[in-house]
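Subject line: Sequence and fold of a protein, written as structure tokens
Area: Proteins and the way their chains fold up in space.
Start of record: The labelled sequence and token lines come straight after this line.
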Amino acid sequence: MEIEKIIMDKQCAIIDVRSQAEFMGGHVEGSVNIPLQELPNRVDELKGMNKPLVLCCASGNRSAQAHRLMTQLGVESYNGGSWMDVNFYASKTA
């Protein structure tokens, strides 16, 4: 399934892996902020969401790292890239 469709159909949890300060400067409405370095400690929380994760950050680098980690842990996830791109797709549902 295409990532754009997953986001537009709200079939995912959007996880922003930027720092809390970056997140407070702007983020996708309804997204959850879990900084990249905290992901390993919050795997059970992420698995408990019971839906695919769309990971985003500022440019796509940290979300790519997060995607690799989630894949290694058996969690379905997608690298959404920049939070602004994810926000664009999410806004198409309104």
Summary: The chain has one domain: 3-91. Strands lie at 13-16, 32-33, 53-57, 77-82. The longest helix spans residues 61-72.
